[in-house]
Design a protein that fits this description.
The structure is a homodimer of 426-residue chains.
Chain A lengths: L2 E7 L1 H4 L7 H11 L3 E8 L3 H14 L2 E5 L10 H8 L4 E3 L1 H15 L5 H4 L3 E3 L3 E3 L8 E6 L2 E6 L3 H19 L4 E10 L3 H7 L1 H5 L5 E8 L2 E10 L5 H15 L4 E3 L5 H12 L3 E5 L5 H7 L8 E7 L2 H8 L3 H7 L4 H15 L3 E7 L14 E7 L4 E7 L4 H22 L12
Parallel strand pairs in A: 1-2, 1-3, 3-8, 13-14, 13-15
Antiparallel strand pairs in A: 4-5, 6-7, 7-8, 9-11, 9-12, 10-11, 15-16, 16-17
Chain lengths: 426, 426
């Protein structure tokens, strides 16, 4: 199989100031194209580090994809080191120079400075990959039958280059395997219980189909991966295993596609032509953000009231002040009243509400940090859950959001939808 | 200097289904403790991959920290491979077994299954690091004077183990360098212009102080890093360089601490004892989420109206329907009206508003995808900006949020605050 190493360059990765999202995206796209990423390595902006990794990775990989270290500033030394490794020297690439000038005169409308012009210099030994989204060109090298490609670290520039040039080049040049995945998402069951529940299924899988558990935020994703030299019967075989797996986990199944909970919810609402709104206290807009991160969500999402302050709960969601003083903001009664207020004010079929103590401060003996009430409902019925988390603020917010979106999904599925209900499937 | 390699294990990292946030956090903490991470590597759940990386990394690194591959499921093979590498065999660790039993009987209140009990098995050659937050114990090995530590991949379990056990052990065992950072955040100037502006400063820095540019979301973070065997005069020297740098970039300075824009805004509002609210259309709650991700934000954040639907803009923010039909939702007039509505409805000192077309659909010739209007203001004045982005939906949302929060910060600083104004500093 054709092997790829992904190398990301930059001191910021080694001191942890930046989280590397590029290489995950690259791995995903390469995988879809039938290439196997054998290793992802992050190194610093040091000459020796770069030279060493090029030597080491090229011993086992067929292709080395690099990102980062191509900026206009002095700490970006990748190009100089590539010249050294490929025994080459910097020359101006006219097309890249034209591109830099265009970006400054037509798009940024700022004067060009010396360091910007230097971005058009590339090692003479490389084949240039033009950057349609930024100033730093990509560079493709070949040495001892290995391919080396250097791309800028700016995510949308790298992504454009990968999609438009790098992946088409690799598919044309190398034999790619046939790799296929099936992924489903479960909620409400832990990884080990799930593994126990499907252990017979797992041990009965043929050798070329692998099962992986991907736990995250109260949900577990299960992935079947098959690979072979030819497609042939592989897809059918994978479909069969996947159908069996779905049946085994149907009690906890959120979706049988490789999508997020919020995408699954969006599909459900689009299909049912129904609408939602959110009334958020402790999640502070995060539930609305998850919903609106999906393109087309304006078709089913009307809006939200983020009622951080109790006055907001009274005024914007008509929560009874007497109820608030009797039970407090973090209570079953309050989240119920918030759902009622949201449905009335925002005129949606369904609404969700959250109220809790996310920490680190604000807890009491009766209601410690991590205490959360959530509610979902429509004009006829409201259901609630009390949650208790032990994590940090960010994680508590994320887990609350996931829980309330999943509770909403289950609630929606439980509600009749006139004549269309029988078509709904799961 | 003591060198560390971080190795993360799991096929999910190589097919890109998971973004590795663990190693960035680890690098940050190790750096604070004076250790240098030389390399971060992600590999798959394969026997050979794990054995090879242990051999390769131990050639140059003093310490190899591993995470992942310790789950209760069949795809997690790290322990078996560690037995092979260290020529050892699995034995039950009584304390770890007690811990697993406790977690199931006292916290999860679920029956223990066979695979959970197996989590208490460890290679006989290791020293166990007890896991106070989960079932998989950590393992410490020594071979040819190199230290190998294997930790679970679940972030809060790994973090607890690092803080409580691993870092104290390393500090005790190895000589750590003295490393110190100073970081500031700028907005409104590109990386290359900034580099040009401070090029003399950069070239005048002593050899043991390095300057790094960390661009992200319309902002550039500048970091000075110094390292030496002793602290001595290093801190003073670094302070002096940092003071010079701050002076040079003062026009674009957001904060001279290593904090986010939303944290800087929170500090400003807390100091001024003033309050904010948001009226969001295209950002869909993301601005509110950024604000409320900061502990203690309830002191200055009242709430938000997420008015995705135009009816919401009219009803909850009193935007004049005639204005909406005359100018459309994505217009200067609408965001101004949203700010006025937010301040009146939510009774805050300041408010921000966003309205735009985030894509991929919804654009027109007059207002293409990426067109955004933002506004910030108080009861006396409102300022607006038109933005135009060319990116994907997620990035457009994030950039809009960052722009509106920074505009708010600048607006707040421009407003007099009675007697306290002169103490404000920057």
């Amino acid at each position: 199989m054709t092997n790829i190493s992904i190398v990301t360059i930059g001191d910021e990765l080694l001191i942890g100031q930046v989280i590397d999202t590029n290489s995950a995206w690259m791995a995903q796209e390469l995988n879809k194209a039938g290439f196997w990423v054998r290793r992802r390595v992050a190194i610093g902006d040091g000459r020796d580090d770069i030279l060493n990794i090029l030597r080491e990775e090229s011993a086992d990989a067929d292709i080395i994809l690099m990102t980062g270290g191509l900026g206009p500033t002095a700490d970006d030394i990748t190009k100089a080191v590539l010249c050294e490794y490929f025994n080459s020297n910097l020359v101006v690439n006219e097309e890249a120079l034209e591109n830099v000038k265009n970006i400054f005169t037509k798009i940024l409308r700022r004067p060009i400075i010396e360091s910007n012009l230097k971005q058009a210099e590339v090692p003479a030994a490389c084949q240039v990959i033009q950057n349609k989204r930024g100033t730093a060109p990509g560079m493709l090298f070949e040495k001892n039958k290995k391919i080396y490609i250097s791309m800028p670290g700016v995510p949308h520039e790298m992504k454009g280059m990968m999609t438009d040039d790098v992946i088409p080049f690799l598919k044309n040049r190398f034999v790619s395997d046939y790799i296929s995945h099936r992924t489903l998402l479960t909620a409400g069951i832990g990884e080990s219980s799930l593994a126990d529940h499907i252990s017979k299924f797992e041990s009965g899988l043929p050798a070329h189909i692998k099962l992986a558990y991907l736990p995250g935020y109260g949900m577990v994703r299960l992935r079947l991966t098959a690979n072979a030299a030819q497609a042939d019967s592989l897809e059918r075989e994978l479909d069969l295993s996947f159908a069996n797996l779905k049946l085994l986990v149907k009690e906890w199944l959120v979706t049988d596609e490789d999508i997020t909970l919020q995408e699954a919810l969006g599909k459900l609402l689009t299909y049912r032509k129904q609408t939602i709104s959110t009334a958020e206290s402790c999640t502070g807009g995060y539930v609305a953000h998850l919903i609106t991160s999906i393109p087309g969500s304006s078709a089913y999402f009307h809006g939200s009231v983020i009622a951080y302050d109790n006055e907001m709960k009274k005024k914007m969601l008509s929560v009874d002040p007497a109820l608030l003083s009797a039970h407090g903001a973090v209570s079953e009664e309050t989240v119920k009243a918030m759902v009622i207020g949201a449905i009335r004010q925002m005129k949606t079929d369904f609404a969700v509400a959250t109220s809790g103590i996310m920490g680190p401060g604000g807890g009491s003996e009766e209601k410690p940090v991590g205490t959360v009430w959530i509610a979902v409902g429509d004009a006829h019925e409201i259901i609630t859950r009390k949650l208790w988390f032990r994590f940090d603020r960010q994680r508590n917010i994320e887990l609350t959001a996931i829980n309330v979106l999943n509770l909403l999904r289950i609630f929606i599925l439980s509600r009749p939808l006139q004549s269309r209900l029988k078509d709904l499937g799961n």
